[in-house]
Amino acid sequence: RLFYRMLIRLTAAAKSTTLLAMIYLRSLVVRPWPERLNGRFPFFLPLIQGLDGLEFRQPVTFFVGENGTGKSTLLEALACAIDSITVGAEPVRTDQTLADVRALSQYLKLVWAPRTRKGFFLRAEDFFGYARRQAQIQAEMRAELDRVDEEYRDRSDFARGLARMPFSRELSDMRGRYGDGLDSISHGEAFLKLFESRFNPGGLYLLDEPEAPLSPLRQLAFLASLKQMIALDSQFIIATHSPLILAFPDADIIQFDNGRLSRVAYEELEHVRLTRDFLQNPAAFLRHL
Fold it and tell me: For the segment 135-146, what is each residue's pLDDT rounded down to a tens digit?
């Protein structure tokens, strides 16, 4: 039943909206860097060595390719060049895991039409740390409320209420966003709740492998949410391996392969062909294990 509700949501959204939303980031151009950087990661990657620039033609752009082809590297460099807000433990300016791509981001020239400051950068691995941090903050706020109650137990209700106010407000805001907490529901449900609660219309969103915590059914729910967000003038650049997510209508699919970028149709993707062939005849693959 839930499966069909997701399909109905996606179909209804497709009928009521078109991919005529804003494209904020129009293109990137790679400027020359000093020769001394050629021996450093990520400058020695074939993809980076051969990259002159990239145009973004649709509100949804997918980066797809085998592991190690540079999808995440380019997405992370984009996030640093944009100085994107992160849903994670560290801002892009200080995150040590982004130190190498921050160097590359200095040589990316971005072309905007118009510039947007809204949106965020989210890596699947950062989501779990973010959820834990939110749970820790809630626990700290509750502890502060207990402390205030103990400290103000002999004072007026008015004084106690004033002292409780900042902590109560913080907890109320978090409950408004995440309910009882991201750690109180499944990873997939928490990811979707976080994604939708942090969404603001008119933003640029960079997502690295959002399918990681999502079941196939939740990936369909993600597609339905994505379609609705596109109607609110938002742009998405997504690195993914998921044939389900890659099926998003009218998206621009950019394949990373042997240091080259090429635009490909959904049906031409190896991810799609391999998944289809496997599902049609799993035994043909498994007998070779």
Answer: 667 777 788 888
